[in-house]
Amino acid sequence: xxxxIALFDATLEQKIKKIWEGLESNKISYYAQxxxxxxxxxxxxxxxxxxxxxFINEIEIFYKNKRQVQLDFQTIGSFVSTRTLFYSPTVxxxxxxxxxxxxxxxxxxxxxxxxxxxxxxWVPHCTLANRLSQxxxxxxxxxxxxxxxxxxxxxxxxxxxxxxxxKCAPVIYSQSLIER
Length: 180
Fold this sequence. Notes:
ligase activity, ligase, alpha+beta, 5 helices, Cyclic Phosphodiesterase, Chain: A, 2'-5' RNA ligase family protein, Cyclic_Pdiesterase, globular
């Protein structure tokens, strides 16, 4: 399985990693350590199988002149069925266009009609913890509320990850976006 992910500038990435570390040191969640090479991101699309070389060529063409996207995280949310805790960015036209334009261009690769990353199903988010018990979900939520720090930055790169089972998800390709 593969996913196209929006990667963050160094400052935003470090803020999210610091939260992951705090959740771990407080024995609330080990999300950051569960998968080798995990990096903070927002998933744009997922694909079961793709011709990797061709897909990367398409990424290079499509994202060549794309600009960075400003992000502002002001919402903490949860997916009930998986007890996943996440930061949700403010939904802007720029972010939604970034997502929908990707799906329009790469429509021939969209074979999964049930994908949660398709337009009209997508909930943009950056996962902080997942598969938590009810008690740990409450602890994680409280921990994140206490941070009370402005979480903002930019999507400055687009990446392609390969998900091997549940223990490894390396970025196999990334491309920088044009600075604003």
